[in-house]
Amino acid sequence: MSSWIQPNRGCQTDGSDPKRLAAKNAMPLVPFVVRPGAPRSVRVRTLRSQRCPLVPIVAFAHNGPLPFSGVDVLRLAGGPAALLEALLWARDWSTERRSTAPAQARTHLLQQLLALLSCCCRNPIGTDVSNEPTRLPLHQLVLLWTGSFGCLLKAASPAQEKVWRKRHAESGGVMSAEFLVRGELPPALPQARLCEVLQRVAEVQADWPMEVRLLWRVLHSRSTAREVSKLWMAAPYTMQDISSEVESAPVHEMFIPGIIAASGTLSRSLQKCLLCTGCQVPPGVSPASFVAACADALNELRNADQLRQVRVQGPGAAAVQRLVQEET
């Protein structure tokens, strides 16, 4: 069993339905968690002794404005490992949502908590060099973002990606849960972590938002040019290298194979981005296929005598430039 998940000692297995046991243990905690009048020591002591699913209670059993922030939830849960256990419980068993907090506040909080666990390091920096900080294992990361929480998965906007980079730099490269929760915490995964999720999931999830489903298809080379162009027109940043500081960000190298393999004609603006922003042409992409996928943009540049604007990089760059020059 991974060190991220500890046995739920508050829900004993005696042959009964585990869902009923968990719900039975959780319901007495509702007044302590959702009523701000209860003494903090009582809430913390009760939660820690019972080790019950905190997040479903906060998210789904409260009427009115949420009285909690991510700091409160992490503290009441007893740390990231206990919070992960609660979220995984919620993923599998949380179906009682007849009385809920306002949808927008609930969604934002859950997305922040999921992003927190997905990106934080389990151990802060310490003197023991053998106990190096580690992030959530990929198989548990995938569990968080599939199933009932799949609908909350989304790509970080350029502004949110910038926040993630800033927090990473401020932490010295090791973002503990305690560090992340006490500053600005985007409710979306950074691009690199999102792609780890999408690459690990074998089949597209029906609960994912359309944007995420299209991105999965591009990563797995299962999309058409029409689908790629649709995603490009709606949210180009999802396929761009938004860690780049340039004004016109190139298409990220990891998406180029799926884009080039898409059947049909790509949008003209995407073709131009592939050709003129310094995209990395990865080793697995045929230079001839790359040039063919950008044929319309190349014709436009040729007719305007602007082929000098073609700028690509990476292992296939020289071959692409040669093919472009041969067509002049």
Task: Describe, in short, the structure shown.
By secondary structure, the chain is mainly alpha-helical. Helix content is 51%, strand content 1%.
Structure, described:
With 328 residues, the chain is mostly helical. It has a domain at 209-328. 51% of the residues lie in helices and 1% in strands. The chain is built from 18 helices and 2 strands. It has a two-stranded parallel ribbon with strand order 1-2. The longest helix is centred in the middle third of the chain and has 17 residues, at 103-119. Mean pLDDT is 79; it is low at 1-53, 55-63, 96-100 and 124-130. Residues 1-15 have a biased composition (Polar residues). Residues 1-20 are annotated as: Disordered.
What structural class do the secondary elements suggest?
Answer: mainly alpha
Low-pLDDT segments: 1-53, 55-63, 96-100, 124-130
Taking all Cα atoms into account, the compactness measure Rg is 24 Å
Shape: elongated
How many distinct beta strands? 2
Helix content: 40-55%
- Tell me the β content: under 5%
In this structure, how is the largest beta sheet organized? 2 strands, parallel
First-to-last CA distance: 61 Å
What does the average pLDDT come to? 79
Q: Note the run of SSEs as H and E.
A: HHHHHHHHHHHHHHHEHHEH
